[in-house]
Specification:
Strand content of chain A: 25-35%
Helix content of chain A: 40-55%
Number of strands of chain B: 7
Shape of chain A: elongated
Distance between the termini of chain B: 49 Å
Shape of chain B: globular
Number of domains of chain A: 1
Helix content of chain B: 25-40%
Oligomer: heterodimer
Number of helices of chain A: 4
Order of helices and strands of chain B: HHHEHHEEEHHHHEEEHHHH
Number of strands of chain A: 4
Number of helices of chain B: 13
Strand order of the largest sheet of chain B: 3-5-6-7
Largest sheet of chain B: 4 strands, antiparallel
Largest interface: A-B, 60 and 88 residues
Distance between the termini of chain A: 68 Å
């Protein structure tokens, strides 16, 4: 059994930063990721530790949102692991079956660990902002459908 | 019983070629792309993902195309595909409290924190065919979505409080909290171990999530019509996006691996109370991939009905019989067994034919004997 992260043990700073950017890489569409980040990895020769591999993650949910856990169904996930020329290991896990996406995420994970925190943060902030904007746009459209129903007085009560 | 047959390869090949041709239809009409199915037949894609038990809109679209729109066939294709992939592990339980809801309604409270948000819905449409959709979009001149003035822009809160939480605080509804030690106990998984009865709620919910929409709809309906009545109210229905967290072995800490769209339904049901418990409301839960509202509602009704034993209710109706419900809800299993009747049963049928002939001959012989005896007596 691999050592799993325990909720009450705080993550070190590097892990926290990786946690954030790995999530952003997974959620950013490949085209946008390439547009912003492809340059960062283009000049490096990476060693493939695990070529992009497609698999499944069983999604867990809870009854009533907060109760009994159950297995809701699986989702496709692609993962990849690389080593940068300077020896940093990078991992990518992305929903779906896009092998390029997983590979780019893994390479970026390795490269970003070698950047200064402020350099990495700047890049991640850009991608993260784009994600938030897209989510906001979607939600704003829904916000126009907010409704106030009036309760009619029933005939026999009047 | 089915006995294997040989031969027919050529005819089978030709039949499949013919199927491909029929699927393609009139070549004068442009071929349907899987991206068009994914974008324009979203509810079909969502049903295939939910009942195929695999979240991947592109794959579901491909399956629908390959199945020529036969959704159960598409679900079958998805189930078969999933067996070819390795399982990386289990996600952390979805944090639905952080759902970015695009639709959120409650039929129990008019004023809920975060508001009633209709989102994209068929509700309140007049169910009149819109012949304008027969025309191409440019001929039709689709109006763009109204742009809002800044005064109208109201952000939906990222995490809307759950409607039932309010009732829960007042103790008027049972709590939705994991049982003692439950979070450390193993969660049942019907894809790994065969189902046994009685089944726990984790197994029931997993089975219902992938269960056939039509079957669960009919069962849910039956409870409303009085076969195991549960007095349901749609406490909350939500459709929106949630992030999925997973702990890769090599990292040892949780990361977000993507975002999925889900539908949730929380039913509020009456419970009269018992010798030890004051009357309070109970819950039924439904969940599915994508926008699958009818399914989530039906599932929530059936989930609640299947809790009959737990809540000390008499099991009198089909929707309360877990062995009946869980054993017949899977449309891939069901279609496999029903449709296998099409396969050659020649040997089996021959033996039945022989048997029926013998039985008939025996009856005839007995009758002849009787007639002879009567004649002899006369």
């Amino acid at each position: 059994m691999p050592e799993q992260h325990k909720k009450d043990v705080p993550l070190d700073e590097t892990a926290q930063r990786r946690q954030r950017w790995l999530g952003v890489f997974a959620k950013t569409p490949l085209a946008a990721l390439e547009q912003h980040c492809a340059e960062l990895v283009a000049e490096h020769q990476f060693h493939m530790l695990r070529t992009p591999e497609r698999g499944l993650v069983m999604v867990r949910a809870r009854a009533g949102g907060t109760g009994t856990q159950f297995n809701a169904g699986e989702m496709t996930v692609t993962r990849c692991s690389v080593r940068s020329p300077s020896g940093t290991t990078g991992h990518g896990y992305v929903a779906g079956r896009n092998q390029k996406h997983a590979e780019l995420a893994a390479k970026l994970d390795a490269v970003l660990q070698e950047l200064t925190p402020s350099q990495a943060d700047a890049l991640i902030d850009t991608l993260d902002d784009a994600l938030s904007e897209a989510a906001t746009r979607r939600q704003q459209k829904s916000a126009t459908t907010r409704v106030d129903f009036y309760t009619m007085v029933r005939g026999d009560d009047a | 019983m089915y006995v294997a047959v040989k031969g027919g390869e050529k005819a089978i090949d030709n039949a499949h070629r013919l199927l491909a041709e029929e699927r393609r239809g009139d070549k004068e009409v442009p071929e349907l792309g899987t991206d068009q199915i994914k974008e324009q037949l979203g509810r079909a894609v969502d049903r295939v993902m939910t009942e195929g038990s695999l979240y991947d809109p592109k794959l579901a679209a491909l399956a629908i195309k390959q199945a020529a729109g036969d959704l159960i066939e598409a679900i079958f294709l998805i189930r078969a595909f999933r067996t070819t992939l390795p399982r990386f592990g289990y996600s952390a339980p979805l944090n639905v409290e952080n759902m970015r809801a695009r639709r959120r309604i409650s039929a129990t409270f008019k004023d809920v924190p975060g508001g009633q948000v209709l989102g994209p819905t068929f509700d309140y449409t007049h169910r009149l065919l819109d012949f304008a959709l027969e025309a191409e979009a440019d001929e039709r001149g689709d109006a763009p979505f109204p742009t809002q003035t800044s005064a109208e822009v109201i952000d939906l809160p990222g995490n809307m409080p759950r409607v039932l939480a309010q009732l829960s605080r007042e103790g008027l509804i049972e709590a939705a909290t994991p049982g003692t030690d439950e979070d450390t106990a193993e969660v049942g998984d019907i894809t790994r171990a065969p189902r046994t009865f009685p089944a726990d709620r984790d197994i029931r919910l997993q089975t219902l999530t992938r269960g056939d929409e039509g079957f669960l709809l009919a069962l849910g309906y039956s409870t409303q019509r009085g076969y195991g009545r549960t007095h349901p109210f749609a406490g909350e229905i939500r459709v929106g996006e949630v992030t999925v967290e997973f702990v890769p072995e090599e990292l040892g800490f949780p990361i977000e691996i993507g975002e999925i769209t889900i539908t949730e339904c929380e039913m509020i049901n009456q419970f009269s109370g018992s010798a030890t418990e004051k009357p309070k409301f109970t819950r039924g839960y439904g969940l599915g991939f994508g926008h699958v509202e009818r399914k989530a509602m039906s599932m929530a009704l059936v989930d609640r009905s299947l809790r009959a034993d737990e809540l000390g209710e008499a099991r009198t109706a089909p929707a309360q019989d877990e062995e009946f419900v869980l054993s017949h809800s899977d449309n891939v299993e069901a279609t496999g067994f029903v449709e296998h009747l099409k396969l050659p049963h020649y040997v089996d049928f021959q033996s039945e034919l022989e048997l029926v002939r013998k039985m008939r001959a025996a009856v005839d012989a007995a009758q002849d004997n009787q007639t002879d005896n009567i004649e002899a007596a006369e």
